Hints:
mainly alpha; 224 residues; single chain; 10 helices
Amino acid sequence: MMQAGDWTFVLGNLEYLLSGVGVTVGLTVTALSLGFLLGFPAGALEVYGGGASRWVVQTAGVVLRGTPIVVIMLVLFFVVSISESAFVTATVGLGLRSGAYQSQLFRGALQSVDDGQLEAARAVGMSRFEAIRHVAVPQALRRSMPGFQNEFTIVLKDTSIAFAIGLAELLTRGYDLFTQSGGSTAVLEVILVISAIYFVLTFATNRGLDRLADYYAIPTGEDR
């Protein structure tokens, strides 16, 4: 049962929670950026690459998508020890996992571009690379934006897994609050506040991406 005293406890520690929001947002942005840097080339290799490069990318993607993110983080932090920083390790772990999913997102977007457009580009003197770069890639980036919204939401929520390697993001700070002496009765209130923060972050970003997707949408005959 919610009590006024519990809400007072939560409000009194709101600054502590909000500092965790900064970590969550920063981790989301860096992981998505790394995922894009890895995922887009990987998706392009799956569509346009040779047999060996395509096999390597596909195999790595299957392994990363099939491995729980918490296992990836634990291996990177405690086994491989890529960095003493939990933030850096979480960024790499989430980025690798996001890259594996983004590669499929971009693969589908690239495959949706009609081959006839590439043939037309070659016919006017473009090389294969130029045709892909100037014809296929711009369209694929536009068409992938709706799927990227889902990926953002997934990565945002997966940042909570960084709890496993000791990173004090939003959910970890919330857990710290209701396990403190005198704060244990505020469990529901803390969870409600954390849920509201996640909702605001997700809703605001998705609405922004909706507008961006509409702005950059590829015109159709009905839009003319």
